[in-house]
Design a protein that fits this description.
By secondary structure, the protein is mainly α. The chain has a domain at 1-56 and 110-135. It contains 6 helices and 2 strands; from the N terminus they run H-H-H-H-H-E-E-H. The chain has helices spanning 13-30, 43-57, 69-72, 75-81, 91-110, 130-133, and strands at 111-113, 119-121. A two-stranded antiparallel sheet has the order 1-2. Strand 1 (111-113) and strand 2 (119-121) form a beta hairpin. One of its GO terms (molecular function) is GTP binding. Residues 7-133 form the Tubulin/FtsZ GTPase domain. This is Tubulin domain-containing protein.
Length: 135
Amino acid sequence: MYRERQLIHLHVGQAGVQTANALWELYCLEHQIKPDGRKEASAFDQLQKRISDTKTAGAKRLNVEDLDSRLIDTTEMRSAIKKPVPAPGSELNKAVEQTRDLDNAAHETLFEVSPFGQFVPRAIFVDSEPSVIGR
């Protein structure tokens, strides 16, 4: 479990607002969020989807292909294929889950999910001249 963290940025004046805009633009790029607030599917997300699809549909344990089959048919390859797959409660899977939880925690510190499924930056822009923010 993780504690929800809060990150507070205070940017004052026109320069502060411009700096904050650039900073949030970088946060969105870092967390793969499009300008419309939707999250892009990362390679990790695509892999997770493939794994869950495989669990429901069933698949081969390993599929190795090469144009030259002599390279695949080696004792090292055979021994690698026979290694056991980690069980769901194993230490390896726990480490992967903790890494994923930390990534999600960092993401949820900066962004909030709207009721429409969009990721919205947790930010308030304040300037003494309100017309500057609208531009």
